[in-house]
User: Which sequence fits this backbone?
């Protein structure tokens, strides 16, 4: 069963939306989860560093 990733963009000023559906196989799903996990880690680390600094 493929997994779905739906990304939405909604700008109330422009009244438009973009919806993307990505069908991933198991290998791609694992790679996507790993990549997003790394991005989330880096974002949270930088956010923590910024909060400490200021």
Assistant:
């Amino acid at each position: 069963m493929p997994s779905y990733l739906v990304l939405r963009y909604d700008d109330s000023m422009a009244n438009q939306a973009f919806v993307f559906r990505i069908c991933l196989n198991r290998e791609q799903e694992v790679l996507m989860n790993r990549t997003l996990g790394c991005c989330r880690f880096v974002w949270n680390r930088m956010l923590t560093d910024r909060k400490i600094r200021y």
